[in-house]
Amino acid sequence: MTERLDYEAVGLISGLEVHQQLLTRHKLFCRCPSGLYTTTHDGEVLRHMRPTLSELGEYDGTALMEFKTKKEIVYLLNHLNVCTYEMDDTPPFLVNQEAIDVAIELCLMMNMDIIDEIHIARKQYLDGSIPTGFQRTAIIGVNGWLPFRGRRLSITHVSVEEDSCREVRDKGHQIVWRTDRLGMPLTETVTGADLRTPEEVRDAILLCGLTARSTGRVRTGIGASRQDVNVSVRGGSRVEIKGVPRAGHAVRLVHNEAVRQVNLLALREEMHRRGMDSPGAIRAHPLDVSDVFADTDLDFLRRARQGGGRVFAVRVEGAAGLAQHPTQPDTAFLDELSGRIRVIACLDEPPIVLSAAALPEFPDWHRTLDRLRKRVRPGDRDDTFIVFGPEEDCRTAAEEIR
């Protein structure tokens, strides 16, 4: 740990979603074999995802974010482990009773109330990991608990659901998935927000995993159990750390996320002090400055120009110094912007985004910087961010910066 933190003082709370593959012969909603992994494929399917309204007439925020990426999604199919169900060309078969039995056994071990009727529901998944755009899931038990460190760890519910695809490649506006894992039965064990330190998170993961393995009816090995860890501090928002594969990794991940949220809250206070207290109060001005950088001999800019890309400068009023504000150990707010731009605008050529206030000392860079200042005309309290790539993606990145 590179930064100490009083977890009680900052109000750290955490809860888990533990996903465990079940040791069944078949997948959850078809009769394809479960657990048969392949490295080759017989065909490909191309899809584009779009959000749909929920039963409440609302759009899911995460689904809208994924839609903004405009991804081209490719699925690699092997006839040995997929059928037309996985591609949403056939309705689901009857649910795998073997998987339901394992889930019920797990619920009983965690002192849960088994519900009277199992209803299959849909959860939107627009990241492309499921070709249908949604995951079929069903709650099996509720209101359980496990003994934990002299108290009870609450288990809010256990669901049975289908696993997603395995990612092969994610570059630019295309993401590729392998479908061999798709549809395998999972249980999702959801705990209450009862955990107060990173070490408690680790121990709770181990406890839930041990409980599942004690049934003798779950898969083991890397990837067979994956955890989503929900973390927040007092005044912060819940952040979900997806797909933690090992319990030991959770300690540093939870610690760093707590540090990140504390630092972002401090950054928010500074922004409010500067009058940047609402989205409308943040004024950003994107400008195509490709000609300014035409003679700059930097590999990443040269590659962008060769592909017909552009260079954009985004001047943000009153943002001087914000990009250098620390977030996590060895990480600054500029890295937060970089990650957001990589995901939403699909600009993934490092360094993704530069801050003019902290540009590295490249050869002859000072002359380029002088030309940039004359074009952008930043004020003493402004900062200018540089992004490069396809023009439409640069404009998306400018809005994400704002």
Structural class by helix and strand composition: alpha+beta
**Percentage of β-strand residues:** 25-35%
Gyration radius (Cα, Å) is 24 Å
User: Kindly, what is the distance between the CA atoms of the first and last residues, rounded to a whole number of angstroms?
Assistant: 32 Å
Number of strands: 16
Arithmetic mean of pLDDT: 93
Helix coverage percent of residues? 25-40%
Describe the overall structure.
- The protein has helices at 7-10, 61-68, 97-109, 198-213, 249-273, 299-306, 333-344, 365-376, 391-401; strands at residues 13-21, 43-47, 72-77, 113-114, 121-124, 134-148, 151-162, 166-171, 174-178, 185-191, 225-232, 239-244, 284-288, 310-316, 353-355, 383-389.
- Strands 1, 4, 5, 6, 7, 10, 11 and 12 form an 8-stranded antiparallel sheet that branches. Strands 2-3-9-8 form a 4-stranded mixed sheet, with no helix packed on it.
- The chain is an alpha+beta fold.
How would you summarize what this structure contains?
This protein is of the alpha+beta class and 402 residues long. The chain has 9 helices and 16 strands. The strands form 3 sheets. Strands 1, 4, 5, 6, 7, 10, 11 and 12 form an 8-stranded antiparallel sheet that branches.
Which key phrases capture this entry?
402 residues; 9 helices; globular; four-stranded mixed β-sheet; eight-stranded antiparallel β-sheet; 16 strands; 27% helix; alpha+beta
Give the SSE map.
Blueprint: H1 7-10, E1 13-21, E2 43-47, H2 61-68, E3 72-77, H3 97-109, E4 113-114, E5 121-124, E6 134-148, E7 151-162, E8 166-171, E9 174-178, E10 185-191, H4 198-213, E11 225-232, E12 239-244, H5 249-273, E13 284-288, H6 299-306, E14 310-316, H7 333-344, E15 353-355, H8 365-376, E16 383-389, H9 391-401
Parallel strand pairs: 3-9
Antiparallel strand pairs: 1-10, 1-11, 2-3, 4-6, 5-6, 6-7, 7-10, 8-9, 11-12, 13-14, 14-16, 15-16
Helix pairs in contact: 4-5, 7-9
